[in-house]
Amino acid sequence: MIFEHEIPKGSRLYFGKLAKAKRRLENSVCEILEKNGFEEILTPNFSYSQHQAIENERKLIKFSDEDNEQVSLRADSTLDVVRIITKRLGRTTNHRKWFYVQPVFSYPSKEDYQIGCEWIEHGDISDILNLTAEILKALKIEPILQISNINIPKLASTELNISIDLLKNGEISELIKLDCDWLDKLLRVSNIKSLEDVISIVPNNLKNELEKLLKKAKEVNYSNIVIAPLYYGSLKYYNDIYYRVIQDNLVICNGGMYEAEGISSLGFALYTDNLLKITEG
């Protein structure tokens, strides 16, 4: 039996002090984004193209429109923002820096609020990393900023002739069984010094991507950095250097470089609910 006052499991309810804290948090981050030249956009809750952003399509909440075309509730904002700006609004604006404050939805009834931004046609990931660091400092928190490069696990799996799933699923014990010296050392990389040490011993096809990761990590003005060259994330569109922010087993942010509509861009999403657990916990 469902009582009239119940809300679906996974949905969000804010009231009193928590609602005030959420609004204060969103306003603080939005002020920083506006100061850095970002303008606000709110995208539709419904989308025709969410399957292009989500690795596991079973997480999408789907239904059909009046023409029997499949529609999904928004599960990710990034690709929709780029499409709307470049395709639908392309004739009315040349602005390339946008932010949003809105929820995303996943099956069966999960709702998560995000504060995100997209920097369209911009390729220097250190700029968005430093913007993320600026926001974290303004919130007076110092979680782990983990920086990775999606090309490294892809190249490593080819070099070792193993399934990418071993890296995607983080099956460290199986990777150690390969008894490969450079792989063992790469698995242990966690900072700039250990990354510098391993570059000289890895196969040549990995060197350029590792050096790129090293260069960008050095350009970030933040003290609590962890480098994870073999990490393989779950979002489909990141295609180069990307990152996540973590504290107390909570992912606070995901961001990185991607290509959409043939355009190289970058951005991030802060997860409001997880941020509130840390700042108000």
TrEMBL record:
Residue ranges annotated for the Class II Histidinyl-tRNA synthetase (HisRS)-like catalytic core domain, each copy included: 19-258
GO molecular function, one term: glycosyltransferase activity
Any Pfam family: tRNA-synt_His
Name this protein carries in UniProt: ATP phosphoribosyltransferase regulatory subunit
Organism lineage: Bacteria, Pseudomonadati, Campylobacterota, Epsilonproteobacteria, Campylobacterales
Coiled coil (UniProt feature): none
InterPro entries for this protein: aa-tRNA-synth_II/BPL/LPL, HisRS-like_core, HisRS/HisZ
Alphabetized Gene3D superfamilies for the sequence: Bira Bifunctional Protein, Domain 2
Keywords linked to the UniProt accession: Amino-acid biosynthesis, Glycosyltransferase, Histidine biosynthesis, Transferase
